[in-house]
Amino acid sequence: MNNKITKLEELNEELNAILISNPDLIFIIGADEVYQNVYTHRPQDLFIPKEQFIGMKMQETLPPYVYNQIKTPFYRALETNELEIVKYEIDFEDGIRYFEARFKRYFNKMMCIVRDNTIEENLRIDILNQKKFIDDITKKSPFYICI
Predict the structure, then answer these.
(1) 112 phi and psi, to 5 degrees?
(2) What's the confidence (pLDDT) of residue 131?
(3) pLDDT for 120
(4) Beta-sheet pairing, 25-30 with 95-106
(5) Is the alpha carbon torsion for 76, 77, 83, 86 positive or negative?
(6) CATH, residue 25
(7) How far apart are CA 95 and CA 57, in angstroms?
(8) Can you give the three-state secondary structure of the chain, one letter per residue?
(9) Structural domain includes residue 39
(10) Residue 130 forms part of a structural domain
(11) What integer pLDDT is reported at residue 137 of this predicted model?
(12) pLDDT value of position 146
């Protein structure tokens, strides 16, 4: 019996280490949209302190336009038990940040993993803008340009 308890404690510690060291935000949410737990190694990435999330509903913590984007994938994942992915953006004081949320049901709960994709999205936008700039130059130039 002691060996089983030790093994369970070890597995629990391992799982907690994985969850806390993960760079993403991880939310455990009930089918009623109530946050049951939050895992993050960067508490400053949360809208409100972690302790305040527990017991609150998603609609109470998210901007309305974000909630409206994620509620359908949330309920679809609950219903189908399939992975649902949704991308959204939030306008912060320091600029727009881009996110991807992944919803996966387990038992009667939802695991939501949120990744901040701002750096990647800004790079993608920069590349598209540079490509458009080069295309504009080559289309408007009366001469053949070799780069």
Answers:
(1) -120, 120
(2) 85
(3) 87
(4) unpaired
(5) positive
(6) 3.30.450.20
(7) 26
(8) CHHHHHHHHHHHHHHHHHHHHCCCEEEEEECCCEEEEEECCCHHHCCCCHHHHCCCEHHHHCCHHHHHHHHHHHHHHHHHCCCEEEEEEEEECCEEEEEEEEEEEECCEEEEEEEECHHHHHHHHHHHHHHHHHHHHHHHCCCCCCC
(9) yes
(10) no
(11) 76
(12) 59
Total of domains in the chain: 1
The pLDDT averaged over each successive group of 10 residues in the chain (147 residues) is 81 83 90 94 82 92 94 96 95 90 95 92 85 79 63
Residue 134 lies in a domain: no
Return d(Cα 111, Cα 103) in angstroms, integer: 6
Q: What integer pLDDT is reported at residue 81 of this predicted model?
A: 95
With beta carbons less than 8 A apart as the criterion, state whether 19 and 39 touch. Answer: yes
Q: Is residue 10 part of a domain?
A: yes
Q: Give residue 52's domain range.
A: 2-116
Q: Which residues contact 68 (CB under 8 A, 6 or more apart)?
A: none
Question: In the sheet where 109-116 sits, what is the strand order?
Answer: 35-39, 25-30, 109-116, 95-106, 84-92
Name residue 35's beta-bridge partners: 29
Record the pTM: 0.78
